[in-house]
Amino acid sequence: MRIVFMGTPDFAVPSLKGLLEKGYEVAAVVTQPDRPKGRKRELTPPPVKAFALERGLPVLQPERMRAPEAVAAVAEYAPDLIVTAAYGQILPKSVLELPRLGCVNVHGSLLPRYRGGAPIQRSIIDGESVTGVTLMYMAEGLDTGDMIARVEVPITDEDTSGTMFAKLSEAGAELLLEWLPRLADGTAPRVPQDDSLATYAPNLTRDDERLHWERSSRELFNRVRGLHPMAGAFTFLAGEVFKVWGTKAPDASDASLRAEWEAAAPGSVLETGAFGIRVRTGDGSLVLTEVQPAGKKALPAAEYARGARLAPGTVLG
């Protein structure tokens, strides 16, 4: 069974690694083109490319998978099966029809919920307590294909997108390897998705990253950890971007405001101390534990507040 693997970020690496360790023939790897990264904007290969080159695998990096020359390049490897995991492009019908066993995708949600490009981040932002991975046959729509199997993975208050990416990438690799023998012999199930239950997880925008302090403490807490460690959540302080990388999980004490805090506008700094920075929210307060002022490195919120002499009454927004 000749496999062409398509994936781009760290999420996809365990699936590719698992295929190789189990002795499957990976004929080629398809990934996104190298992109500029970091402050110096240096051209950087995606994690899947770096791993594939370490293992001596051929790598294709088409800008557009729909381009005829890209389809032809994949066809030259005569795949029996195409496996994708967070590749980042929708495959055209011409690619879906190439392998005799079809194309399967390792998707980071419990379909039909959270179809789209940011299922892990948005499940955390939405406050879900459980997510998972779905192994599915690919179709022309956005994550609409028949399902083969799913596995659930809990989300705790300590989890961020970073920790969930790691957990789900390993769970996805295990699920793929568990079902590959049945994909090979044609006995894997095909369970249609119930489109009436579908929800969507579009890629995050700049506005998704901004903290709106009139929202509840729990909503803000979920947003911060859902954006960590990728883009990060932000607000404004004195007209400059002020990133928030960590907060304390809100509890009943955060909803109990002192009388002098009741009239404070959402976004107002209520107090600072060794615990961090307490900020007024729509239903109480939220303690910031890690922040990053413009042009500086991230640091504990208590350290920043002490050094900047951040005064109660300062408004973030």
User: What is the name of the CATH architecture of the largest domain?
Assistant: 3-Layer(aba) Sandwich
User: What is the rounded distance between the termini?
Assistant: 55 Å
Largest sheet: 7 strands, mixed
Strand proportion: 25-35%
* Average residue pLDDT: 97
Work out the radius of gyration: 22 Å
Give the SSE order as H and E letters. Answer: EHEEEHEHEHEHEEHHHEEHEEEEH
What would you call the structural class? alpha/beta
Q: Strands of the largest sheet, in order across it?
A: 5-2-1-6-7-8-9
Task: Note the overall shape.
Answer: elongated
Concise description?
The protein has 317 residues and is of the alpha/beta class.
What do these coordinates show?
The chain has 317 residues and is an alpha/beta fold. The chain folds into two domains: 2-197, 3-Layer(aba) Sandwich (Rossmann fold), CATH 3.40.50; 206-308, Formyl transferase, C-terminal domain (Methionyl-tRNA Fmet Formyltransferase, Chain A, domain 2). The chain is built from ten helices and 15 strands. A seven-stranded mixed sheet has the order 5-2-1-6-7-8-9. Strands 10, 11, 12, 13, 14 and 15 form a six-stranded antiparallel sheet that branches. Helix 1 (13-21) runs parallel beside helix 6 (161-185). The chain is elongated, with a radius of gyration of 22 Å. (6S)-5,6,7,8-tetrahydrofolate binds at residues 109-112. Residues 1-178 form the Formyl transferase N-terminal domain. One of its GO terms (cellular component) is cytosol.
